[in-house]
Fold each of these.
Amino acid sequence: MPKMKTHSGAKKRFKVTASGKVKYRKPGQRHLMTGDSGNQNRKSRKPSIVKDTDMRTMKQNLPYSF
C-alpha cells in the first residue's frame, strides 16, 4: 500500500504536542486589528488546542504525526 500524503496546508499551521493534542495559532493577528477590542486581540495571541470534535479530521490531514 502506498504512503499517505500529509496535507501541506495543515503541516504548516498545526503542531502535535507530546501528549497528542494539536496546537495552532489563532487567526486574525496580521492587520485590521484596530476594530477589535484589546481583550480580543490579547486572547488571540495565545496558541490554542484543536477541539476533540475536529481531531478525526486532523488525523486524516496529518497521518504520520500521531
Amino acid sequence: MKKVLALVMVLALALSFTACGGSGKKVKTGIAIVSSLKGTAATADETGMAQVDSTVAAVTVDESGKIVSCKIDVAQNKVPVNADGSFDTSLTFKSKQELGTDYGMTPASPIGKEWNEQADAFAAYVVGKTAAEVEAIALLGKDKHFGPDVADLAASCTMNVVDIKAAIVEACNNAQDLGATAEDTLGLGLSTEMSSSKLPTADEAGLVQTDTTYAAVTYDKDGKITSTLLNCTQAKFDVTTEGAVTPKSETIVPKMEQGDDYGMRGASPIGKEWNEQANAFAAYLTGKTASEVSAITVLPDKHNAPDVADLAASCTMNVVAFIDAVGRAMA
C-alpha cells in the first residue's frame, strides 16, 4: 500500500509540474519601435534624401519578466529626391532582416558579420534577461560605434545597439498577456508602402510619406496564432521644387501609442479609433494559420476594410498592410 501511495504522489507531483512549469507556460507578448528622421536637401550636383530609420523589437517575457524570445529588425526607408523635387513614387522597401547580405555591412564590419547576423546574435544574448538587465548592458564609445561592451558578443555583434536596446526594454515593459505560451514561435514582420506621397508643384509642396506596419505574432506547433500585436509608423517630409527636404515633425510616435490623438474616430463609420480597430483585428486573428490570414478578403469600395461579418462593428479600416505584415512574421 505504501508503494502505491508513493507512486500516486510521484504522479501527482509530475502532473503539477507540467501544469505549473512545463508545457503551456504562459508568456506576455510585447513590441516597441524607436524612430529617427533625417532630411537632406538636393543640390545641382547631389541627390537629396528623405530617410527614416525605425528600429523594432518584439519579445515574449515570462512571469518573472525574463525574455523568452526576441526578434529585432529595422525599417530603413530611404527616398532619393532630385534637385527639382521629383522622386520615385513607386519605390518598394525591404527591412534590414529581409535584405540579409544585400544590406552590405559585412565588408565594413571588423568581425565580418552582416547586420542581420549581428542583430540575431544580440537578440539571442538578451534571452533570459529582464528589461533592467538589458538596459544595464554597457556600450563602447563613439569610436567603437556604440557597440555592446560585452565579452560574449565580441565575435558576433559590434554594431551600434543604442536603439535596439531601447526598443527591447520598451517592448518588455509594455508586454501583454494575450494567450501566448513559452513553446510558441515568435515572428516579426514589417510592411512598408508610400502610396500617400505626392510630387511638388509650383503651387504646392510635395510629400514623401512612408508608412510602415509592424506585426509581432506568436504561433503554436500547429501554425495557429496565439497572439498578435500590430502597430504603424508614419514618416512625412515636405519637398519643394527646389529640392528642399524637411521632416514635418522631429519625432515619430507610433499610431498605437497616439491613441485618441491620431484622430480617426471622427472619420470612422463605426466611431472607433485606429488603435481600437487594430486591436480588434489582431484579436480576430487568434487561432488562425498563415494561410487563413492571407485568405481574408477586403472591400476595395470601403477602403480595403475586412470583408468579415464578425468585424463589422469593430474594424472597418484598411487592413491590407496588416495581412501582409502578419504573413511576413509567419513566413
Amino acid sequence: MICSNIGQAGGRLTFAGRDTVALAEQYGTPLYLMDEQRIRHNCRIYKENMDRHFTRALPLYASKALACRRLYEIVAEEGLGTDVVSPGELYLAKSAGFPMERVFFHGNAKTDADILFAMGCGVGYFVVDNPDELSAVDRYAGERGIHQKILLRVTPGIDPHTFEAVSTGKVDSKFGIPIETGQALEFVQQALGLEHVQVMGLHAHVGSQVFASTVFYDTADIMLRFLAELKEKLGWEAEMLNLGGGYGVRYTEQDPTVDIGYELSTVGRHIKEGCARLGLAEPMVLMEPGRSIVADAGMTLYTVQSTKRIPGYRSYVAIDGGMTDNPRYALYRSAYTVYLANKMDAPRDFVCTVGGRCCESGDMIQENVPLPEPERGDILAVCTTGAYNYSMSSNYNSIPRPPIVMVDGERDYVAVRRETFEDLAAREV
C-alpha cells in the first residue's frame, strides 16, 4: 500500500483502520474521507523537525491545498501558521478562530477590497508580490494608522523540474520579482523607504511536488547570497526567510519516498552553514507545506455505475463522480492509485479507464487501471486525494459537491456537508 493508513481486512479496503465500504454505505458517494490523525501526524513532522533543526522556524500550512474550517482548527491546534491566497480562505481561517498573527496572505493580484478585508481581519503578514501592490498596502496601512508587516516575494530563478503548471520560481513567472534582473533589489529598496509597512523578510517559492532536496539547497543559497547583497548595499538584514512549499507525496508505488524529518535536518544545517559563511544572522525560516500535510490523509469513494467494453480499443468504468470533485487528471494527467474497495482479494486482471459522470470527453480519473472486473454498485476508491481535490472542485454540469467526512479513530463526523440541489440555486434571484 502506498500509505500506512491504507490496508485491507476481510476482502475490504480500510482507511485509517475503518471499513471504507461501510463508510460509503453510511454517508453515500461520492465521498471525501480525511484521516484526522494523519493530518496531525504530518503537521508534527514539520513542526517538530523545524523546531529541532532550525534556530527559529515556523511551518505554514498552505491552505489552497484544502481549506475548510475544521482543517484550520486542527492546524492551529498543532501550532502551525497558515498561508492563504484569497479573502475566502482568510474568511474561513478567521471564522475557525485561527490566530491572525500566524496568517500570511499571498496572491499576485490582490484587489483593493482584498487588502482592506485582510487588514480588517488583522492579518499578520502580507506576502507582497509586486510594486503596485506594495504601494497599495502602504497607502491603506497609512489610512488605518498601522504599520503592516510584510514579506516581499522574489523569484530565485530555479526550475524544480516539476510539472510546468506548478513551477513558480523561474525568472519568467507571474509570481514575484526576479533577482537576476536586478529588479528585486529595487523592490526591496522601495519597500524599505515606505512609512507604513514593516519589511520582515523575503519569500521565495519554486514549485510544488518537489522530491529533490537540492532544490531547497539551491533556493537557500540564492536567497542567502541575495540577503548578503542587501545587507551590504542597503544595510538591511531580513528577520524572516520563507522558502516556500513542502515536499512531494506518493500517489503511486512508483513515486519515491521522502524522509521529511531527515531532509529538513539537512536543509537546516545548510542554512546555518550558509549564514555563517556569509556573515548573516540566521533568519526565522518559514516553509509552506500543503500537499504533504493533507494529500495522503485523503481518499475519495465512488460507486460504480457501469462497465463498457469496446473490443480492440479499451474498457470504461463509469462512476458517480469525476472531474467535478477531482479535476487533476483532466488538468495535469495526474497519477493515482485506484482500488475496488469491496473486492480487495480478487485478482486485478481487468484493465480499464475510470471515467466520470460529466458530459465531457476529458472527464477521466485514471487510465490503464488494473482492477477486479467491476459491477454496478461496487465501491471504487481513489487514494491520496486530500490535496487539490475538494479545493479545486466545481459545480460543472450542476453537480453538487461531495461532503468531507473526518475519520478519527473509532469516531467519524461530517466536517463539510454534502451540497444539495437547493444550494445550487440559493444565489439565484
